[in-house]
Amino acid sequence: MNIVLAASEAFPFCKTGGLADVVGALCQQFAGHKGNKVLLFLPHYRNIVRVSSLKIVPGVYLIPVGDKIEQASLSYINWGNVLVFFVSNRKYFDRPDLYRTKEGEYQDNDERFIFFNRAVLEGCKFIGFRPDIIHCHDWQTGLIPAYLKTVYKLDAFYTRTRCLYTVHNIAYQGHYSYAAFRKAGFHPVDYTPEKFEYYGGISFLKSGLVFADNINTVSPNYAREIQNDPAMGFGLDGVLRARSKNFCGIVNGIDTDIWDPEIDPVLSVGYDAAEASRGKLTAKRALQQQCKLTQDDDKPIIGIVSRLDYQKGLDGVIGLIEKLHKQVQFVILGQGDPLLEKAYQGLARAHAGSVSYNSRLDEELAHKIYAGADLLLMPSRFEPCGLSQLIAMKYGTLPIVSKVGGLVDTVIGFDGKNENTATGFFIETFTEKGLYNTVVRALQVYKNRVLWDRLVRSAMRQDVSWDKSAQAYLDLYRKTVA
Length: 482
Hints:
It is a single chain. By secondary structure, the protein is an alpha/beta fold. It has two domains: about 1-255 and about 465-480, Rossmann fold; about 275-460, 3-Layer(aba) Sandwich (Rossmann fold), CATH 3.40.50. The chain is about 35% helix and about 20% strand. The chain is built from 18 helices and 21 strands. The strands form four sheets. Strands 1, 2, 3, 4, 5, 6, 9, 10, 14 and 15 form a ten-stranded mixed sheet that branches. α12 links the parallel β17 and β18 (about 355-360). The longest helix is centred in the first third of the chain and has 19 residues, at about 110-125. It starts with a strand and ends with a helix. The mean pLDDT is about 95.
């Protein structure tokens, strides 16, 4: 199959969150199957990394955006068996960050991604690569399925091309005014509630849901939630129900070439399930030293590796830390909501030696937290799939998670009897008291080292790789093309 993946970010080239990890891993998985030719299209942001050997595609091609004509150019790199193409336009992509400044989103994000969506389609024609399927990810590429069914409907180049659209988080919808619809070049006759119209404007994500040949999201439970619960569907549950025959959930995996404590180059001592106690103790001591925590082998560490925002439920953790900082050490890595950042900075100052807050993106520290922590906290209000709990289990760090979305599909909660199969703990009641009670219960289990070691081994034995899920995507590709 000729496969094109289009996304706004992909690890290791550009990343703000889990979307990048998923897209990067999927590319490599698909390219590893015989007979597949895989291309990945990304915007050429200023801070693209690992592209010192870029090759330039000669020439430029033109993209209409409203009443303007913008120039696009392509450069590419061979990334294993994947060809990664970067769409260049300095006006739209030569900026400090991918989507926003500290003051908020870029005001022209609609134009930026209108340009990118059409540049992917015109770019395939420019290099002469006719895709069997285009796999689009999240709102930033939601117009590609719409273009294929409208503007490019009679284009012979795309006669056989089909489109799969993956929703990684339905809360982010790319909602813009009617002016953005006109800039995109769609015909006013298609501006109806059944197609493009969305609360007087246009939603890039809704456009993808309406026009894609097939749709999926990143876990079966999240697929059920966003169809059946209006609060979880963020206004698009009706659209999803209307397309239920073409909608499914495929759980994410992790790249075990990157996330594996046995071969992780960040760790001074590698370990597997049999050597977890020794390896994690070494990692704990290193984490305590780096984060200036009190050196104490017996004190449990709770790690948090997360974006700081309402979705992640981390506002409810502030009181928890105040209550437990004498019994537990906390290491938090993440940035986001300025008020939450300020609150965690205050906790770290007030409880030095027990609380470490690190406001940055730091892949190396993330590896050290997953290895050195005993527990990983994810009190999400909603969670499409989540990668942190998968990584944590791989590293023998037991996740404490809300009973939502993909967390239900990937974690087996300890019920007091299933020590040979459980992999973590569920927050049964989503309140500060419910969170506190679950954490205290987990800490009581931690004191029973024989039981704890069983749970750690059970978590580490889980298959959290991409193997099964990547095959499910390839099967969905074949179904979509057929």
